[in-house]
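Support request, please re-run this one:
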Amino acid sequence: MTSPRRSRLVAAVCLAAAAALSAGCSKEEGTGAASSDTSQGAQVVQSPSADSSGSGCTLDAYGATKIDLKDAVVGFSQSEKEANPFRIAETRSIKDEAARLGVKKLLTTNAQSQLSKQISDIKDMLAQGAQLLIVAPLNSDGLEPALQAAAAKHVPVITVDRKLNATACKDYVAFLGSDFVEQGKRAADAMIQVTGGKGKVAILLGASGNNVTTDRTKGFVDQLKAKAPGLEIVAQQTGEFARDKGQQVMEQLIQSKPDITAVYAENDEMGLGAVTALKGASKKPGKDVKIISIDGTRNAVQALADGQYNGVIESNPRFGPLAFATAQKFFGGESIPENVIISDRAYDASNAKDSLSGAY
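Re-run finished. Output below.
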């Protein structure tokens, strides 16, 4: 049963997301920009509930002080360079929502994929008076010094898109993001559908050290074992969530495993790198080798519409409305669940062309 507090959180998130839609931004191909909140792209909360006892994190339990965001300094710590459309859209969504709400001051940093820099960035924002931190963690482990610095100043931390191996309502308030195991399962189901459940699959793994890679791998592998034993996983190699690395790994796999018939890429950038590698080897991506990936970037959905891809499971990066709505409820005294899980759509050949406007 959904409690009144949980219902209010869902309502607030939906209202915040809807209000942000009118300020949606579009992406121009080749500019490196990405869309922010669009009428088809807003996040929808799937499961904001805590455990069965109804427990969650409150302002008093966390030991934080009530603030009004319009009079507050908020810090956002981005983990990776914004060459990736996911990161571009995520940062823009945070900035857009802060501006819409009239947040007094938003501090933004980028760790450039360096854990030591992310720790330093967070400490620097605290030194500049940050009263709330929204953090996209680079890794699930290693941020302890930054979390301790925030705790020492009783500054709440909300994490987005990657989980921390830490204690909720002590080290951080809540995690906002997708169910990554479920994403892997859905990618496996899409792979089964486009291959008929038979073939040899290569997995382009994401970066090590975070729950996204671990969970997307587990969901995919377990689902294939359960539902399609005829799909054999013949290679698992990291492409580090990067297009150039995904291309390089795929080029190597084409040489070492020439009988590969399908690729599961744990993000779109690696999948698009695989497309380039396959073309370079005179193979037809989407036909000779089926490709399924996760993210929902416009380039991947366009490749799907063009027949060079076979399926994309979305991982929605537009966290601005949800992050700030969650913060407002927290500072308002409401209980916030440890995990606030969003729903992700799926793109396939039947809907790709008509869904491009919702991609980022």
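Residues 1-39, 49-54 have pLDDT under 50 and may be disordered. The two ends are 34 Å apart (CA to CA).
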